[in-house]
Amino acid sequence: MSEFNTVAIEDQYSSGVTAHHPITIARGSGPYLWDDQGNRYIDCVAGYGTANVGHCHPKVTAAIQKQAAELVVCPGCQYNETRARLLEKLVELAPGDIDRVYLGNSGTESVEAALKFARLSTGRQGIIATKRAFHGRSMGSLSATWEAKYRDPYLPLVPGFSHVTYNDIEAMDAAITDETAGVILEIVQGEGGIYLGDGDYLRAVQQMCRDRGAMFIVDEVQTGCGRTGRFFASEHYDLEPDMICLAKSLAGGVPIGATLVGPRVENLSPSVHGTTFGGNPLAAAAALAAIEVIEEEHLAERAEKLGVMAVARLQQIESPLIREVRGLGLMVGVDLRVRPGKFVNALLDEGVMALTAGHTVLRLLPTLVIGEDDLMTACDAVERVLMAEE
Ligand code: PMP
Q1: Cα(46) to centroid of ligand 1, in Å?
Q2: What is the b/e burial string over 10-44, where b = at least 16 CB atoms within 10 angstroms of the residue's CB?
Q3: Under the phi-then-psi rule, with left for phi > 0, alpha for psi from -120 to 50, and beta for the rest, what region is 298?
Q4: Which of 22, 80, 109, 296 sits in a 20 to 30 Å window from 150, CA-based?
């Protein structure tokens, strides 16, 4: 055994801004992770939702290896076939009349670009976001994020942002004015606690944006890439957003962000925005492979079917600790009457990795390649840890 003490060294030298689960991960394959002691876990964290195609999918691994041997970096000022193929694929997949893509490196960047494009396109300043929203932590995207603990240390944030109650049509109606550059929202609020958007609400917001000249921006960083049962969660409600933000699982775990843009977004001319790494061939090759896997293995359909099963199973748990079970596809939350953190640790002992969301939600965000048995095993483990608590 090596003498190297990963935990001690990470604790000493990492910045300190991240709390750790008490576990050191050595490798992953498909729906599983293994710790450095050789213990196997059913992964319902999926790298915060970046591992929809499973860990180290052979197709994604092969695409990364091939591209790494050919060309890793290629700045935006030079053309590249792999990037071109990804741009074409994303436009082909996207709902509505999306016709261009800005490639970045993270969810935050995909949101940041959308916010800037909304202002650039409309010449207006106002951005409306929703309460409980999470859109990232850069100063712009953080201005759209709701949670005070993320925002307060950094005030003042970017002016012009406001937040309205999610799923409240009247509140949105009152908020969108001729000063509004854009509205940004999630189809399912993820970090905020797995709250599902209402179809009528989402369509009404889109229509109000159209009528009043504001950009309708859908943040699909967490809901995208098959997670909710469609490649884009927007498809559940026939939405045709002006901009869609993608990241997380888009490149099978390799960092990437994409802001998909439709024809109402104007003024995107050279130098109004940019990035060094965005559109690099390595991430593009990984993304092309990951998208192919999502399509070939029908992972969105799997997510839809398995999500229904997981919610039904979790709803059977007769625990007074549970307030509600919610989910769309494999984005599943168990809303508790208590803080969920200790159950995440208890689940580790059961061989299941889970997450929290909001203040009270135990969140399951498995890979979309998880087997039915493993998913039921994870749900059984949730039942055991909740029952052990009473
Ligand atoms: N938007 C949403 C909806 C997210 O869930 C997240 C990350 N949890 C982000 C944006 C930010 O993405 P990233 O961490 O890749 O910057």
Answers
A1: 14
A2: eeeeeeeeeeeeeeebeebebbbbbbeeeeebbbb
A3: left
A4: 22
331: left (phi over 0), alpha (psi -120 to 50) or beta: beta
The tens digit of pLDDT for each residue in 30-63 reads 999 999 999 999 999 999 999 999 999 999 999 9
pLDDT in tens, 107-116: 999 999 999 9
Whether the CB of 190 sits within 6 Å of ligand 1:
yes
User: In 375-389, which positions are buried (b, 16+ CB within 10 angstroms) versus exposed (e)?
Assistant: bebbbebbbbbbeee
- The answer to whether the CB of 111 is under 6 A from ligand 1 is yes
Q: Taking the model in full, what pTM does it have?
A: 0.98
Closest atom of ligand 1 to 186 CA is 3
Q: In this structure, what are the phi and psi dihedrals at residue 32, rounded to the nearest 5 degrees?
A: -115, 155
pLDDT at 295 over 70: yes
Say yes or no: CB of residue 246 within 6 Å of ligand 1. Answer: no
Beta-sheet strands, E only, within 263-372:
322-328, 331-336, 352-353, 355-357, 361-364
Instruction: Establish whether residue 126 lines the binding site of ligand 1, counting it when its CB lies within 6 angstroms of any ligand atom.
Output: no
Q: How far is CA 129 from CA 115, 138, 233, in A?
A: 11, 15, 18
Residue 193 has pLDDT above 80, yes or no: yes
119: left (phi over 0), alpha (psi -120 to 50) or beta: alpha
Q: Which two tokens stand for residue 341?
A: 């953190």
DSSP codes, 114-181: HHHHHHHHHS--EEEEETT----SSHHHHHH---HHHHGGG-S--TTEEEE-TT-HHHHHHH--TTEE
Which of left, alpha, beta for 225 (phi over 0: left; psi -120 to 50: alpha)? left
Cβ-based neighbour number of residue 77 at 10 Å: 7
Residue 156: cis peptide before it, omega within 30 degrees of 0: yes
Give the pairing type, strands 126-130 and 180-185.
parallel
- DSSP letter at 347? H
pLDDT band at 93 (very low <50, low <70, confident <90, very high): very high
Query: Taking the CB of residue 317, how many other CB atoms lie within 10 A of it?
Result: 17
CB crowding 193-232: b at 16 or more within 10 Å, else e: bbbbbeeebbeebbebbeeeebbbbbbbbbbbbbbbbbbb
Q: Record the tokens describing residue 6, joined without a space.
A: 């990963």
